[in-house]
Structures are given as structure tokens and as C-alpha cells.
Amino acid sequence: MTVIEARGLRKAFGTTVALDSINLRVDEGRILGLIGPNGAGKSTALNAILGLTQYQGELRVLGRDPWLERDQLMRDICFISDVAVLPRWMRVSQALDYVAGVHPRFDRAKAEGFLTKTDIKRTSRVRELSKGMVAQLHLALVMAIDARLLVLDEPTLGLDLLYRKQFYDSLLNDYFDRTRTILVTTHQVEDVQYVLTDLMFINRGRIVLDCSMEDFESRFAEVTARPEQVAAARALKPIRERQVLGRSILLFDHVERQQLTALGEVRTPSIADLFVAVMGDHAEPAKGMAK
Amino acid sequence: MPGSFRDSQISESQGIAPAIVRATQPFYWSVRRELWEYRSIYIAPLAVAAVTLFGYLIASMIRGVVLQPFSFAAGVILMAVFIVSIFYSLETLHGERRDRSILFWKSLPVSDLTTVLSKASIPLVVLPLLGFAIIVATELIMLLLGSLVLMGRGLNVATLWTPVFRMWLMLLYHLVTVHMLWYAPMYGWLLLVSAWARRAAFLWAALPWLAICAVEKIAFNTTRFAAMLGYRFAGGPEAIPGVDSFFGMTQLTPGRFLSSPGLWIGLAITAAFLAGALRLRRCQGPI
What we know:
Chain A is of the alpha/beta class. Chain A is built from eleven helices and 13 strands. In chain A, a hairpin with a 2-residue loop joins strand 8 and strand 9 (206-212). In chain A, helix 4 (108-116) packs antiparallel against helix 5 and helix 5 (131-143) runs parallel beside helix 6 (161-175). Chain A is globular, with a radius of gyration of 21 Å. The A-B interface holds A 1, 47, 50, 52-54, 62-64, 70-81, 84-91, 94, 97-99, 101-105, 146, 148, 179 and B 2-3, 6-7, 10, 14, 16, 18-21, 25-26, 28-30, 32-33, 36-37, 96, 99-104, 106-112, 114, 283, 285.
């Protein structure tokens, strides 16, 4: 079933268009990464989905209108929007009490279970915890809620590599069960490459790429071309070419792998490489990339 | 509605039995979290009460004065409650946007209406009642101390105790009529400014009124608006002429109070201010 469905979703701040009539559809059980440069419209899209901002166009989240039904919707949605939103004065025990008090689907025992795996003390105030521990606390609260959609807006911003890895590991191992849906935005794309099932690039309020990770692997290929094959490779119209240690690395979209293996070493590009290829040329947003 | 029908189907099929959260539960927890965050709500009046008791200890034990300071003690604690109410109302909706925690509060199934009402209930209900309890407790301790002093001198303690129940009744009446109902538009205004201002909430709360008074004075050389504000501040028809009226047994006149148009106009304005604060809470994000 469809968890998020947007048609012609549009939002403008004065003359600045943050979302330019985007269409979006996220099905149950997917982990969608919404990737884009700063100011691309990611946060605006998330805010609209979470009922934090008004919008034009049509948007249904779990069958509801988020702007009009935010409080009911929040029974089925959890969100973490960067690491610094837990109130700093709050004690860990108060956070547990409060969420248990207001959230009908919060399993306190489960949250306590997650917390025992960390060094977080119940009596600590949030301001006394390190950034990584605050993220662990927020994740423990959120994972103990039996929600259908989890929205993560830059959840690992400012965390070190270990916390980031642990964050996504617990998300996949202890939370995600294929009936839940996760929507994540991040700049740390290398962290989510093997987490996502779907990938979406957004730039200047428009969706410029929308594909599943299975498609991603068959559709995009990166070739480290042998010097004598570079010209032949260029003839196949790569979407980007870069030089590494004097060798040309070319990125192709929709080119047969067999054709490419003749040119050099072929592999699946990283999301980061594709991101740079698609977004790199800001002056001219890539055309014809959207499905 | 199709959405809720689907919800119930999903819940059944997955065997989820959502715990029944009573409708009042989010409100109750919202009020509690205000008390967690703004501990001055109870610490400030308690501290003033402690200082008052210390003073009374000196007065009764050393100077032998037992009767006089009662209404004064009540007055200072009320003043503390009033000041805390003002600062709380001005800070609460502003603070959650400033520290970005509004994003956390909004990620939970608590409506903006519940949030705004729970915040409004602190100056309108919680603080006056808390003030009443603290004053009664303080005066009880004072009475016990005073009784000890009087008995030590072989005097009758009845003179000390007779007026207190009447006094507490007067106090409660004063709190309900003035602090809860008559001051309501003031707290409503402060909450509205708190939800609206990006910075310097205190200036935005005070300056418009000063500006109106100044324009009126310069343009028409009248001070009606200032007089109206003064009347509101002073407590309107239930204004207590002096603290001694706690003992002076002025007649309670609820009829006169309830029939004064100022009360109802004030409450209507309060509702409008709170509706504005609610609208802003819905639309605004962190600052």
C-alpha cells in the first residue's frame, strides 16, 4: 500500500520556489533516501509530509492530510529531525515518562531495553549527554514506538563514524521489518548506500532522479577506461567523466554492461559519485534523468 | 473515513492493541512537562514563602509581634506568583522555538490546541492555585509559631485563629476573580507575543501599549487608554484597596463582578489572543 502520495506538491516562500510541483509515491516497506544539495527543498518536502508546513497541491500520508490532521498522524509517524531537538533541560527518565504518557503506541520496556545497551543514565539531563548519546536516546525513544512511517531528517549530522554506523545498524536490525517505511535525508550518502531500497535526488525543488536500488545497480555503471579505449568510451555518452591518477573514470546511464566491459574495469558507482554527476553542474540541472 | 477504517484493519491484522490513552492524558502530561521545564513556577513562590517565614520567626520570637504580618506575607507570595506568571507566559512558546525542541514536541501525537491550552493553564489555573496552597501553608506555620508565642505569655490564642478562615476564603475569591479571570487577557496577550516574537519578546509585549498611550496623550491630550490599562492591572471591580482588607472583611460581591462588562470583554479578548497563539504555534517552526 502507498504510505506517501504527493501530486503537484508545491511550496513557495515569497518568490523562492522551494518545491516545484513534485510528484512522489512511497510504498510500504521501502527505505527511501531523499538526497539533495542544501536548499534543494528536502526539508520543505519533509515538513509538508509531517504536517509542519502548509502547501499547495495534493498530499496524503497514510491516507491523511498532514496539515489538518498532524496530531492523529503522529500516532503512526515518528520523526527525528537532526540530533539537537530533544529539550536540553529534560532528564532521560522524564523523556520516557512523557512519551509513555502521550503516545499510545510507545513500548516503554522496549525503550529501556535499548537504553541499557548504552551508557546513558536515567537521571542525566539531555544537556549532559554527548551528541552521539542524544542521538542514541532519540533513536531508542523512536524505535520503541510502533509507527508505520519513520522520517529522519539529517539524523546523524555531526556524529562520528562509529555512532553513524551504529545508528543505521540498529535501525536495520532492531527496527525495520519490511512493513515499516523509512524516509531519510542525509548528506552522508556513503552511510546509507547499503541501507536504502529507493533513491531520490532532489534539486531546486524538483525531483531529478527517482529509482530503486535494484534499478540503480543495473542502470548505472562506472568504467575505469583503459587509455586506448577512452575515445570509444566517450562515444557512448557518459554522464560524467573524471580523472583519477591519470586514468579516466566514466559514469554511464542505461548502457549495456557487456558493451562497457570491453572498455575497462566496470563497477556500480557509489551514490556519492552519481550525486556529483547529476548535481555537479549546477548551472544546468541534468535533463532527462527523472523517470 | 477510509483512513481510520484502514487503520483498524491494520491494527487487527498485526495484532497491535494500541494502549488506550485517555483523552485527558496528553493534556495532563503537557502540564507536567511545563512544571519540569519551568521549575521557577513552584521554586520562586516557595522561596519567597521561606523568606517570609524567616522574617516572621524574627518578628514573633524576638519582637513579639504576632498578628500584623499575615496579609503582608500573603501579598508578597502573591506578588511572586504574579511575576512568575508574567515571565512564564512570555517565555514558554518562545523558548521551545528558540531551542528547537518544538520539533520534538510536534513529533508526538499532541495537538497544538492541547499544547497551547496546557501552557495557558499554568498562569490561569496552576499558579493561582499553587499560590493559594503555599500561602495557606505559610500562614498555618505562622499561626502555629504565633500561638506558641502567645501561649508562652499566657494569652488567649483565639484572637489569632478567628479571622484566618475568613481570610483564606477572601484570598481564594481574590485569586479566582482577579488572578484567573480578570488578568486572563494579560496572560493571553503575553502568550500571543511569545508565540509570535522572534526575539525581544518583552519589548514586543510592552511597547505597543506604551505607544498607544503616548499617541493618545499627544494627539488628544487624554489618558483614557492608560487609565483602562491601570484599571485592568489594579484588579478591576474586585481590586483590593489595601492588603488590610483581608482582615477588613470587605463584602464579597460576586454578582457585581460577574455582571461587569469588563470581565466578559476581557475573557473574549483572551480567547482571541489564545486563538492567535494557537494559529502561530501551528505554522511556526524553530527560530
